TrEMBL record:
InterPro entries for the chain: P-loop_NTPase
Organism (species): Paracoccus siganidrum
Protein name: Sulfotransferase family protein
């Protein structure tokens, strides 16, 4: 093995264009080799052959992670990394690019230091740099909800989905910090996700120092569901009845509010440490505002859960003193669902007047 070779380990995050990068690098592996960059064949699963899922999932599984449904293979970590080492040793290229967003799961294990340390030992023969994309939390939350609801079973509604989310997944602070602590802060290449298509590919190649210039248009690899039909599709796949599927299960609206604030604070902190200008737009009010956008297309069908309307109204009452912005968004949504509700309308007018907001 040659310790002078540099390995760029692209670990994600999820919903930051990883599939597009993997698709491009896979299809243009020969072009990358002309620039001295190897995109190895080793470590690629049969069902998802553009990424290096064997390398990420084999280690993550050893540390308690249950692989996603698409991954049906049973490849041992020792075997996966032995194949990688053999390919790198035989290759003349001095730069290696490995990509799998499933590496993020190592930072979310019960003992992340052990999981990431295991990975680091397997990569110790090379000078390893970590490539990680940060994505603004509200945008990440919306995209993840959209993605998960492409599956055969629908999730709970958007506020409940957020309420059950892993904070570290959304804030990304712990992911970045845990990898930086093991591989070294100086070896973190941190990018802000925002570009799509060709610009996204160009940005990635530039970040790893590759002079290859992609010239052909890059189509979206993972297209999002239209927001106009997302809720209708989700409800059609829900594993529970309409009442449960359309009810926000939030026992403590104050804790809901504080969770959003913590995620934003942690994201802003890590973005600042990484030298990125992006800042979080996630607030509890923003979660409810997006929920209203998701619900609006259902109104012509008359699909309104009246218990949810009461629930939104009562949550607004509970926070109106300490968070008038959240209270107004909750009541705006309740009013949208029950426009003739006199009590809702009267209190909403008070909120709007207090905040100086026109209807």
């Amino acid at each position: 093995m040659d310790a002078t070779k540099t390995l760029y380990l692209h670990i994600g995050h999820y919903k930051t264009g990883s599939s597009a990068l993997q698709d491009y690098c896979s299809r243009h592996a020969d072009d990358l080799r002309q620039q001295g960059y190897l995109y190895p064949d080793a470590g690629r699963p049969l069902r998802n052959p553009t990424n290096h899922g064997h390398l990420s999932l084999s280690v993550a599984r050893q540390h308690g992670f249950v692989p996603p449904p698409w991954y049906g293979e049973d490849v041992a970590a020792d075997d996966a990394y032995a194949a990688l080492a053999a390919e790198i040793e035989a290759a003349p290229e001095t730069k290696i690019v490995i990509s799998s967003e499933e590496f993020v799961q190592l930072a979310l294990r019960k003992d992340p230091a052990a999981a990431i340390g295991d990975l680091a030992r397997r990569l110790s023969a090379w000078d390893t740099r970590i490539v990680f994309y940060l994505r603004e939390p509200l945008s990440l939350l919306k995209s993840w909800y959209n993605e998960v609801n492409k599956g055969p079973v629908g999730t709970r509604n958007f506020p409940s989905f957020f309420n059950g989310m892993n904070e570290n997944f959304l804030s990304q602070q712990a992911i970045w910090t845990r990898f930086a602590d093991v591989f070294g802060h100086e070896n973190m290449i941190t990018l802000s996700y925002g570009e799509v298509g060709l610009a996204h590919i160009e940005g990635f190649l530039k970040a790893v120092g590759c002079a290859h210039e992609p010239a052909q248009p890059q189509e979206l690899v993972q297209a999002a569901q239209p927001i106009e039909t997302l809720e209708r599709r989700r409800l059609a796949k829900a594993a529970v009845d309409f009442g449960m599927a359309s009810f926000s299960h939030i026992k403590d609206i104050g804790a809901f509010q504080e969770k959003a604030a913590r995620i934003s604070r942690d994201f802003d902190e890590v973005a600042g440490r990484a030298g990125l200008a992006v800042r979080s737009k996630l607030t509890s009010a923003a979660v409810i505002a997006h929920y209203a956008r998701l619900l609006a297309p259902l109104l012509p069908d008359g699909r309104v859960n009246q218990k949810e309307v009461d629930n939104l109204r009562d949550m607004a009452f509970a926070v109106e003193e300490r968070d008038p912005l959240l209270a107004r968004e909750l009541m705006e949504t309740a009013h949208m669902l029950r426009p003739d509700g006199k009590r809702i309308k009267a209190r909403l007018e008070e909120y709007r007047a207090k905040l100086g907001v026109n209807p």
